[in-house]
């Protein structure tokens, strides 16, 4: 069974929420594997909710990003060290940041950079839909140290 549809919300003809959620997950993988956010671990999930304006002709236009949820596995805050977390790492020793700092880094390095890369039909980056009105939930259940299978 297959389901889905194409539209003109994004350059890749995918629904904006799908494109955002998929690319956020990919960016989490990229920053983990590159070592930028070395304390991330592989398990995670994303969810994006967009608020739309319905036009008189029935078409809809994205107005703002209402909610972004990212739950991602990570090393023990303020305890885990890079030499123990990253096999083969030989650089200077580092300790995983606090949960607050982890969340800030995820917002800056994952959320905002991903939204800057996604182009809307208008040519504007999806980041133009992000703002003070956007509800951000990064690891809303708290620490996520033990992941799935």
Characterise this structure.
Its EC number is 2.5.1.6. This is methionine adenosyltransferase. The protein is α+β, with helices and mostly antiparallel strands. It has a single domain, classed as 2-Layer Sandwich (GMP Synthetase, Chain A, domain 3). The protein has three helices and three strands, in the order αββααβ. The longest helix is centred in the first third of the chain and has 19 residues. The mean pLDDT is 94.
Quick rundown:
With 149 residues, the protein is of the alpha+beta class. It has helices at 16-34, 82-85, 99-117; strands at residues 40-54, 60-74, 135-138. It is 28% helix and 23% strand.
Features:
alpha+beta, GMP Synthetase, Chain A, domain 3, 3-stranded mixed beta sheet, 3 helices
What proportion strand?
15-25%
- Low-pLDDT runs of 5+ residues are none
**Whole-number mean pLDDT:** 94
The SSE string, one letter per element, is HEEHHE
- Give the proportion of residues in helices: 25-40%
What would CATH call the architecture?
A: 2-Layer Sandwich
The largest sheet is: 3 strands, mixed
Pfam families: S-AdoMet_synt_M
Family: Belongs to the AdoMet synthase family.
Keywords: ATP-binding, Magnesium, Metal-binding, Nucleotide-binding, One-carbon metabolism, Potassium, Transferase
GO molecular function: ATP binding; metal ion binding; methionine adenosyltransferase activity
Topology:
Elements: H1 16-34, E1 40-54, E2 60-74, H2 82-85, H3 99-117, E3 135-138
Parallel strand pairs: 2-3
Antiparallel strand pairs: 1-2
Helix pairs in contact: 1-3
């Amino acid at each position: 069974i297959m389901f889905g549809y194409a539209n003109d919300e994004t350059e890749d003809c995918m629904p904006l929420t799908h494109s955002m959620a998929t690319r956020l997950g990919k960016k989490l993988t990229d920053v983990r594997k590159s070592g930028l956010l070395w304390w991330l671990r592989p398990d995670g999930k994303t969810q994006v909710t967009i608020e739309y304006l319905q036009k008189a002709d029935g078409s809809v236009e994205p107005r703002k990003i209402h909610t972004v949820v990212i739950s991602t596995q990570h090393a023990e805050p303020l305890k885990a060290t890079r030499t123990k977390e990253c096999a083969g790492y030989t650089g200077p020793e580092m300790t995983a940041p606090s949960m607050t700092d982890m969340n800030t880094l995820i917002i800056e390095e994952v959320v905002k950079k991903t939204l800057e890369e996604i182009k809307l039909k208008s040519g504007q980056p999806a980041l133009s839909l992000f703002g003070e009105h956007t509800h951000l939930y990064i690891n809303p259940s708290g620490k996520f140290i033990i992941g799935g299978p």
